[in-house]
Amino acid sequence: MDTHHKEIDRLQEVIQAERAWVEAHRRLDIAALERLMADEYKHVRADGAVVGKAEDLASYQTGDRYWEFAESDEYDIQVHGRTAVLIGRWRARGVNAGERFDYSARFMSVYVKRDGGWQMVAAQSTPLPGDEL
Question: 58 is in which domain, residue-wise?
Answer without folding.
Answer: 3-127
